[in-house]
Write a structure and sequence with these properties.
alpha/beta; 11 helices; 6-stranded parallel sheet
Length: 306
């Protein structure tokens, strides 16, 4: 199958690596600018424009593509979905790669156009029979790498891609532990970007795509996660615990001071406490032959030279 990967960030490249190293699928990478460092790998990079005036060019580029994996957001992704349907693409995976869509609130500051993308895909599934799935991977391990996931070119424009923006600042030895309504530390599922790439690559060849393909490398509560980080660094962290009331109070303060980044940080804590990044079953793990790396192993390797 010919695959198009839309986007060139670290996650898109991990998916490209997964396809290149583990399958016989041909793939192209769609980018808004030339990427010499990717063509140097022998990958085919096609420069595209998602503006309405370039729609026919985009449709032409997608002609003959069997599956599109999107790692772009907003209006560009909507244009990509529409062009894919017009070009006869059989499968489309939107830029999800976090928790389950059903657990997102109606008004979501972390949305980045994801709800609109799923609505458009539902429309095209009915009218043009383009199948779609949401790849659900929980939290990327790279959030806890030195410097945060931005150092892997992931979440650069998210506002919360730096080290310490989510739960733990390992360098500063600080942790925030959100508690669920049951009075216990919240639980999350996690996967490394490399393993996401391998899971996605393996899923391309599945006979059918359900509406969600859930994968994970590990699942644990936040207290356990912090304990692992402390053990690897050989020191205790300063820990702040948050219940629903304290998180709402902190969010109100951030809103009053118009501190956008702090708002996003607290909203992420609230989403974690509400179980947005946790799922009891990972159906894709049972459907493909991928053995993901456990979080403790990954974190040990990530911080080995720091």
């Amino acid at each position: 199958m010919r695959v198009a990967i839309a986007g060139t960030n670290g996650l898109a490249c991990a998916i490209a690596e997964g396809i290149s190293n583990n399958t016989d699928h041909q793939f192209i990478i769609l980018s808004r600018a030339a990427k010499p460092h990717l063509t140097a790998k022998g990958w085919q990079v096609l420069v595209v424009n998602y503006a309405e005036t370039h729609r026919q060019n985009l449709i032409f580029t997608l002609t003959g593509v069997g599956a599109v994996i999107s790692v772009i957001w907003g209006s560009a992704q909507i244009a990509l979905i529409d062009a894919a349907a017009r070009a006869g693409v059989r499968r489309f995976a939107p830029a999800e790669f976090e928790g389950q869509a059903a657990l997102r609130p109606a008004t979501d500051a972390l949305d980045r156009g994801k709800r609109s993308a799923l609505e458009r895909l539902r429309y095209h599934q009915t009218h043009s029979h383009m199948q779609y799935t949401s790849f659900v991977c929980g939290i990327l391990y790279e959030r806890f790498s030195p410097g945060g996931m931005m150092t892997s070119r992931i979440g650069v424009r998210s506002g919360i891609g730096g080290e310490g923006d989510y739960l733990i600042h390992i360098t500063q030895k600080r942790a925030r532990i959100p508690y669920a309504t049951n009075g216990q530390p919240a639980t999350i599922c996690m996967t490394s970007a490399e393993d996401v790439g391998e899971f996605v690559a393996a899923a391309i060849g599945l006979q059918n795509w359900p509406l969600e393909l859930r994968m994970r490398g590990d699942r644990m509560n936040i207290s356990r996660l912090v304990h692992i980080a402390e053990a690897i660094r050989g020191t205790h962290f300063e820990k702040n615990q948050y219940n629903s009331q304290s998180m709402q109070s902190e969010l109100a303060l951030a809103q009053a001071s118009q501190a956008i980044q702090q708002q996003l940080r607290v909203i992420s804590l609230i989403a974690t406490a509400n179980g947005r990044f946790d799922f009891a079953t990972a159906n894709l793990n049972t459907m493909v032959n991928v053995t993901p790396k456990r979080f403790q192993t990954w974190l040990q390797e990530a911080w080995a030279d720091h």
